Amino acid sequence: MEGKGRTALVTGASSGMGWETARRLAEKGFEVIAAARRLDRLEDLAKKADHIIPRRVDLSEPRAVDAFCGYLSGLPRPVSVLVNNAGYSVRGALEDVPMDAVMRVFQVNLFALIRITQACLPGMRKQREGIIVNLSSMAGKFAFPMSGVYAATKHAVEAISDSLRIEVRPFGIRVITIRPGFIATEFNEAANRITGDLLSRTAPDYKPLYQASGASIGKWFVNATVPGADLIAKMIVEAVVSDSPEITYSGGFLSEEFQGKRFQSDDEAFDRFLTEKTGLTGRVP
Predict the structure, then answer these.
(1) 24 in helix, strand or coil?
(2) φ and ψ at 31, to 5 degrees?
(3) How does pLDDT run across 72-129, given as a tens digit for each residue?
(4) Where are the domains of the chain?
(5) What is the CA radius of gyration of the chain?
(6) By C-alpha distance, which of 143, 280, 281, 258 is closest to 210?
(7) The dihedral sign for the CA sequence 30, 31, 37, 43
(8) Which end of the chain is more exposed for a tag (fewer CB within 10 A), N or C?
(9) How far is residue 178's CA from residue 131's CA, in Å, rounded to a whole number?
(10) What pTM did the predictor assign?
(11) Residue 246: DSSP 8-state
(12) SS3 per residue for 150-176
C-alpha cells in the first residue's frame, strides 16, 4: 500500500516497537496518528519525523477509549492502516495476580484493541481497502509459567485476528498478526515495575518456583544478543507496503526455537519441554 494520501494509526507509539513503526510509516509518506498515554514522548516523536500527529489516550480507561474512537470516526480521511501495538504484561502465578490487575491488562491488550478496530472498520469498508496489524506475541501460541494472564490476552488477540481476517477479506481489508519473541525494549522493565516484588508477598510454597524459574530464564540471556525494536518495526512496515503480505510474521530472540517446538510438538511433549526450560521439573516438598 502506498503511503501518500493515507492515514495510519499506531497505538502504543510512545516507545519501542510503536515508536519505530510510527516513524517508519511517516517516512513512507503516511500521515500517522501516534497514540499513547505519554504525550511528552509523542511530541518528541513528532519532532523527529514529519506527518506525525500526537494523540494522548489512556487505553486502560474505557471512557477514554470511547472518546478516542469518537475522534477516529470523525476524521475527514479514514484510517487506512491500523497498527494495534499497545500492550503490557503483569506477571505472577495465577493465585498471586489481583483481579483488578487481570482486568486492566485485558482492557489494554484486548478490549481497547477490539474497540479501536471497530471504530476503524467502517471507513476501511467504505474504501474497500485497509490493513490491520495486530501485535500478538510468541506467547500468543503458548504460555510461559508466571505469565498466564498476559499470554491469555495474546491468545485472544490471535483468535480475534484469525476470525476477523476471514470476515473482512471480501472488503479488501487485510489482517496481519505479528508474533515477536524477546525484543530489547522497555517492555520487561515495565512488567517488573507493574508486577512489583512478588517474592515479598507470595505464599512460601511459591517462592521456590519463582526462584527456580527466574534463575533458569536468566540463563537464556547470558551472552545473548537480543534484537531491538527496529526488527519488528521493519517487519510491520514491509508487510504494510507489500502487495502480498503474509498473514503472520515472527521474529526476535528465541522466537524460532520456541514457536518451532510448539508447532512440531503435541501438547504433552511441549509441556515437558517448557517445564524443563523454565526449571520447574522438581516438586515442592
Answers:
(1) helix
(2) -85, 120
(3) 999 999 999 999 999 999 999 999 999 999 999 999 999 999 999 999 999 999 999 9
(4) 7-201+227-264
(5) 19
(6) 280
(7) positive
(8) C
(9) 13
(10) 0.96
(11) -
(12) HHHHHHHHHHHHHHHHHHHHHHCEEEE
Instruction: Locate 173 and state its grid cell.
Output: 481489508
List 150, 206, 210, 249, catalytic entry: 150
- Residue-level pLDDT at 191: 87
CA 279 remoteness from chain centre: 26
Task: Reply yes or no on whether 150 is catalytic.
Answer: yes
Q: What residue type is assigned to position 97 of the chain? A: V
The dihedrals phi and psi of 77, each to the nearest 5 degrees, come to -125, 120
Contact 178, 235 (CB under 8 A): yes
Question: In a 10 Å sphere around its CB, with 0-12 CB exposed, 13-18 middle and 19+ buried, how is residue 220 labelled?
Answer: middle
| pLDDT tens-digit series, residues 173-214 | 999 999 999 999 988 888 888 888 888 999 999 999 999 999
pLDDT at site 90:
95
| Residue the block writes with cell 504525550 | 39
